[in-house]
Amino acid sequence: MIWRAGDRVWEFPRSPLIMGIVNVTPDSFSDGGQHATTETAVAHALALASEGADILDIGGESTRPGAPPVSEADELARVLPVIKKLAGATGAALSVDTQKPAVAAAALDAGAVIVNDIAAHRNNPQMWQTAASAGAGYVAMHMQGTPQTMQDAPTYDDVVATVHDFFGERLEATAGAGLPAEHVALDPGLGFGKSLEHNLALLGALEHFTKWQRPLLVGASRKSFLGHLTGAKVADRLPGSLACACRAAEAGAGIVRVHEVRETAHALKTWAAISRQ
Ligand code: 7PJ
Fold it and tell me: Strand 8-11 and strand 2-5: pairing?
């Protein structure tokens, strides 16, 4: 199985690719906007790359529950300067975390090779066409509701079956928009319209989704369900995040999206050494 993203081609199975999170937002829940300026975001991104990030995921819109939407102009002003500075400055592949086709298009033009679309549930072929015409990689993430409302009372008859069927529908839709499956990665969207039980059920059932023969992206890093499990505040959720990264690796996930790259790389290296026994 391969994943194509611009000039990149990754082969799976392999130890999960590490996607390092670069927030360029003043209100991001987990780092309080400390990387809010272009310079600090670029420096943080380069540090993550040197710690072993294969991919840098650059986002200009906070998607924490209840966060206000950001205008296209503001989002572009946040992410584009960062992507422009990083293009050519790092060997890590650049990903743009956006729900807006225009932001995705500008980011791909500036050197990004992956569109990370947390709104993949919306029927917006424009996003898929944008990724297709750039030959980009595309992450289709499952979300119930919108970031404004998603955690109000998430309910499913069967969360695993729902996400599984969503993946199948999305693979059809993206192919229909001209984006071949080889460009698509699938993400259960932990925390996006999911209770603690839903997140645990999805993490426990990751193998189920390998049926689609596409890399799975798992983003558990620092999420609130880890706080609900352990009582840990956002800054103290690394242990839970690492447990999830190892679980993702065990299930054959292709990509883990994380805040702490160095620690994740060490945990996954250890996991890989054990799993070779
Ligand atoms: C995810 C994401 C995720 C993908 C965020 C946070 C919230 N993109 N963007 N998967 N989460 N693909 O980092 O806690 O889980 S923003």
Answer: antiparallel
